[in-house]
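seq as requested:
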Amino acid sequence: MQEASLHQWLWHLTGVYNWAVKKIEHDAEDGIYYSQKTFQNLLAEHSNRMEIPSHTLQGTLTQAYTAWQRCFKKQAKKPRLKGKRNKLNSIPFPDPIKPPKGNRISIPAIGSIRFHKQDLPEAKIKCGRIVKRASGWYLCLWLDTEHKFPVKQTEAAVGIDPGFKTLLTLSDGKKFENPRELRKGATRLAQAQRAHNKKLTARLLEKQANRRNDRNHKISRYLVENYKTIYFSNDNFKAMARKFGKSVTEAGLNQLIGMTTYKCRTGGREIKPVNSFRTTMTCWKCRALTGPTGLDELAVRQWDCACGAHHDRDVNAAMNVLLAGAGAAHERGIRHIEWCAQYPSET
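struct tokens:
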């Protein structure tokens, strides 16, 4: 009964969202703009007819309103209408929710819902959102609390060179291999798609996404816990994806950098992007441009510089990212004096 109600709500809220998107678009063409509160009041009497809580209806209107605001500010693309290929899969509950009792929680207009018990910190639940996924229904809660996790007391800085065969290479030599979740599950996914089993296909894609999220959460947590300052090569992953395809998209590097960024704010760390120009071909010791260049030399993973230094391609790039982030110049022939003084055995 509760699941049927949620499905019915999603159907109605999809129509509300699409109406809101088109309403804002057409009125903006005529020079008519709304404040958020005024826009929410346009459907003030419709919640009773749809048998949906008024604040849930207002939350959907706010979602469409925020999408257009981001578009007007050039922060996002034009919002798309929801439909069969772009489904609305969440129901907002903007009001505070009472704390769960045991394995049950009370949701406005839905009633008491049983869930798999999970420990929550002692905090006020500000709002919630029910999300429909291939594996079932999930309740996302926003808690009024301060999120913290322990970090090491260190002054260490690290440079990061993102990659695809090796997911991340750090300037201290540590490497995170790419587990390639997409390729490992490609055979089973293709079987489900050939059988036109949409539910199984969606479930397999969700599992791959969950594995990728779990991997990126663990790696970003490790970086924030162990380094005070993080410099990463600011590559254009979208352009790389157009050239190299799945090898780029399955790595999820944009997501990994995003997770590291917000965890740095939580852990009191600092993360800075660094221009990746010539980081591969520049010897980090003598600053000579003697390394491999171009697509033809992507297979060259080890190389020797004229100064006698032997380099791992990725570690050398990560070292150059660290030097550039710390303020060293990339011009030929300039040596980073502070680095050499700190690590005399490496020069």
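The longest strand covers residues 124-133.
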